[in-house]
Amino acid sequence: MLFKQQALLRQKLFVLGSLAIGSVLYLVARVGTLDRLQPICPIESRLPPPDPEQIPLRTLQFKRGLLHELRKGNATKEQIRLHNLVQQLPRAIIIGVRKGGTRALLEMLNLHPAVVKASQEIHFFDNDQNYARGIDWYRGKMPFSFPHQITIEKSPAYFITEEVPERIFKMNSSIKLLIIVREPTTRAVSDYTQVLEGKERKNKTYHKFEKLAIDTNTCEVNTKYKAVRTSIYTKHLERWLKYFPVEQFHIVDGDRLITDPLPELQLVERFLNLPSRISQYNLYFNATRGFYCLRFNIVFNKCLAGSKGRIHPDVDPSVVTKLQKFFHPFNQKFYQITGRTFNWP
Q: pTM for the complete prediction?
């Protein structure tokens, strides 16, 4: 009886051992097969080939951190040399208009990986003292960038300063010029609001908008008031057209940039000959702030400064109507020159 049990046990062990050896041999053979197949059909070869146009832009997105360090002054000269970084003169300038949305436009364009912005207004072309420092001083104020990136700066005073068109033309006669405009009366009130806030911070008094915008002697629009004069867009544009063809200008709708920014940004991308990279993902509406904020990636979001979107004071409706009638013929001429029409009163 004991002998039979031992024989049965040896038989079971033999079967289990055979199964184990067979499994090991199968795995060895399988791995060997995979190793032989790997060079013939690597996984990477089954992926679609990358788009050559996108490669440098994706690379730039990973290198934004380095550019950020440069702006803070933390990058070394060796890093600058290794990454072939340069300070380039701008190939596009946002020349105006004040209170039209120049800061919002610049920050939104900076979402594009091929765009690098000058963080501060340089005021090179409209300030005689700065201009006398020369073009190398101006270049030194530009951010570091990769050679195929476009540097953009914005100084809204450029649009209304008489000497600026000729000075920019001497630097680069083929430069691209961006002008962002809003409904002229709304822009004038916004201009007044910013100045008023500055006066109040210094505990200074300031006239009401109506008293500044309307000449009390003639009861007509006061064209000597700077906020009114700036909103006569066609007068300033005509001075620029003495140096640059209209094709080098792109008009941005500042009112639409507030309510629906993406279509406006896509038009600018085309004007600058940039591949379309800014998407709805990059823009989200902040209900608390009342306007769109920027999403660079999954961890970095940015909203404009709290000073943006100031509440305007109430203005006498009769003054608003008078201003709208005054601006109307200038607006019509602006539409004709630029080829872009707005639903302004």
A: 0.78
Cα distance between residue 280 and residue 262, in whole Å? 7
For residue 17, tell me if it sits in a domain: no
Instruction: Let me know if residue 48 belongs to a domain.
Output: no
Distance of CA 243 to the CA centre of its chain: 26
Lowest mean pLDDT among 69-73, 115-119, 144-148, 193-197: 69-73
Question: Is 322 annotated in the active site?
Answer: no
- Could you list the residue range(s) of the whole structural domain that residue 154 is in? 66-184+230-309
d(CA 334, CA 337): 5
Contacts of 96 (CB under 8 A, 6+ apart): 102, 156, 157, 158, 159, 160, 179, 180, 236
Q: Is residue 155 part of a domain?
A: yes
Rounded to an integer, what distance in angstroms lies between the CA atom of residue 41 and that of residue 83?
35
Closest Cα to residue 333, out of 237, 228, 247?
A: 237
Interval 260-273: pLDDT, tens:
999 999 999 999 99
Binding residues for 3'-phosphoadenylyl sulfate: 99-103, 182, 190, 292, 308-312
Residue numbering of the annotated binding site? 99-103, 182, 190, 292, 308-312
CA distance 6 to 77: 82
Number of domains into which the chain is organized: 1
Q: How far apart are CA 40 and CA 30, in angstroms?
A: 16
More confident residue, 69 or 244: 244
d(CA 26, CA 32) in angstroms, rounded, equals: 10
Residue of 4, 99, 202, 235 marked active site: 99
pLDDT in tens, 186-225: 999 999 999 999 998 888 889 999 999 999 999 999 999 9
Over residues 291-315, the pLDDT tens digits come to 899 999 888 888 887 656 678 999 9
Using pLDDT thresholds of 50, 70 and 90, give the confidence band for residue 21.
low
> Distance of CA 228 to CAs 28, 141, 190, 248, Å?
85, 32, 11, 26
Which CATH number goes with the domain that contains 268? 3.40.50.300
